[in-house]
């Protein structure tokens, strides 16, 4: 009787220990899963061109061609944002400028953008209006159809400058986009569809208002001198106004080359990410660029990676090496 009692007692103890271990393991797994999901990952790329030389390759190899080397690069991203350098349209009236610089992309290629991971596009640039109001409306409608959000444009000037907010697991991320260049060859009014144009007299108020409605605010600028590897004073002044007004990070594009990063008042300013999907250009370093990867926890930037990009025959490839920042950063230029 005593041996049976001891045996049952030991079995109960072992069972209790096994249950306790299982509970601890499950709790630990749940803890790390929740902790992982508390980290929001954002990617930002440079300029995306799907016409001209890129279209030559697309016509030969198919719509997937520009994305083949990056198809798995953004799988862990909650938000993947690019600068779309032209309208998604089959119509519209070409703008009054040099035909060599009038772009448009087939609307159905939006599916390939989506398949590559893109779910957000900046439209505040000097090529969005290359096919006028109809081209822009087609672009916005097409992106909506394929489930890709957008900012930096609108059906009126007021809508164009309005921020866009995306809620991810309770954290609200805000986006503002501005172009320092007006649309070329497009006559616009306050009531017509247009891109968001930079107005420094109202920038401070706009950033403050947007920041009050979100947990983390990204401000994007299309600015700077083409092919210049260094930001000019105008870019620096504008970026610092945005940071001082509440922007958590500034992302720039247009120069077609990477312009480096500055830390200002504890916040990062990426002046230009260079090209991402683009055809061959003569100036040096236009076949290079950068992707920025942000890790955000509870509205705070915890980590930032700069991922170098190499473009070969209009196909971007993210290289293995990266530069990381934790609170403070080295300068990458």
Break the fold down into its secondary structure elements and pairings.
Blueprint: H1 2-37, E1 39-48, H2 53-61, E2 79-84, H3 110-115, E3 120-122, H4 132-145, E4 149-151, E5 153-154, H5 157-160, E6 164-168, E7 171-179, E8 194-195, H6 200-211, E9 216-222, H7 233-244, E10 249-253, E11 258-264, E12 267-273, E13 275-277, E14 288-297, E15 300-312, E16 315-318, E17 323-325
Parallel strand pairs: 1-2, 1-13, 2-3, 3-4, 7-9, 9-10, 10-12
Antiparallel strand pairs: 1-14, 5-8, 6-7, 11-12, 14-15, 15-16, 15-17
Helix pairs in contact: 6-7
Give a brief description.
This protein is α/β, with parallel strands linked by helices. Helices cover 28% and strands 30% of the residues. The radius of gyration is 24 Å and the shape is globular.
Can you give a write-up of this model?
The chain is of the alpha/beta class. The protein has two domains: 1-37; 41-325, Purple Acid Phosphatase, chain A, domain 2. The protein has seven helices and 17 strands. Strands 1, 2, 3, 4, 13, 14, 15, 16 and 17 form a nine-stranded mixed β-sheet that branches. The protein has a six-stranded mixed β-sheet with strand order 6-7-9-10-12-11, covered by helices on one side. The protein has a two-stranded antiparallel ribbon with strand order 5-8. The longest helix is centred in the first third of the chain and has 36 residues, at 2-37.
Outline the biggest β-sheet.
9 strands, mixed
> How many β strands by DSSP?
17
Tally of structural domains: 2
Chain-averaged pLDDT = 90
Approximate helicity band: 25-40%
Total DSSP helices: 7
Q: What's the N-to-C terminus distance?
A: 81 Å
> Quick one: CATH class of the largest domain?
Alpha Beta
């Amino acid at each position: 009787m005593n041996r049976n009692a001891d045996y049952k007692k030991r079995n109960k103890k072992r069972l209790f220990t096994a249950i306790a271990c299982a509970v601890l393991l499950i709790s630990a797994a749940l803890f790390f899963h929740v902790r992982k999901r508390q980290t929001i990952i954002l990617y930002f790329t440079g300029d995306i061109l799907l016409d001209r030389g890129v279209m030559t390759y697309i016509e030969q190899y198919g719509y997937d061609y520009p994305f083949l080397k990056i198809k798995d690069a953004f799988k862990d991203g909650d938000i993947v944002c690019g600068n779309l350098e032209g309208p998604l349209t089959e119509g519209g009236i070409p703008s009054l400028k040099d035909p060599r610089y009038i772009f448009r992309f087939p609307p159905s290629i939006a599916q390939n953008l989506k398949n590559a991971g893109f779910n957000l596009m900046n439209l505040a640039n000097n090529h969005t209006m290359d096919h006028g109001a109809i081209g822009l409306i087609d672009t916005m409608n097409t992106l909506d159809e394929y489930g890709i959000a957008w900012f930096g444009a609108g059906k009126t000037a007021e809508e164009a400058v309005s921020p866009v907010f995306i809620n991810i697991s309770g954290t609200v991320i805000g986006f503002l986009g501005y172009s320092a260049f007006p649309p070329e060859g497009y006559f616009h009014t306050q009531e017509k569809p247009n891109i968001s144009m930079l107005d420094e007299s109202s920038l401070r108020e706009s950033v403050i208002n947007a920041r009050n409605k979100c947990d983390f605010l990204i401000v994007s600028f299309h600015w700077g001198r083409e092919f210049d590897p260094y930001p000019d004073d105008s870019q620096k002044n504008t970026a610092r106004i945005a940071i001082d007004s509440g922007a958590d990070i500034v992302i720039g594009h247009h120069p077609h080359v990477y312009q480096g990063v500055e830390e200002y008042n504890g916040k990062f300013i990426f002046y230009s990410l260079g090209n991402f999907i683009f055809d061959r250009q003569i100036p040096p370093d236009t076949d290079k660029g950068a992707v920025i990867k942000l890790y955000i926890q509870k509205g705070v930037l915890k980590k930032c990676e700069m991922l170098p990009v190499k473009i070969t025959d209009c196909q971007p490839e993210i290289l293995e090496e990266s530069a990381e920042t934790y609170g403070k950063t080295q300068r990458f230029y």
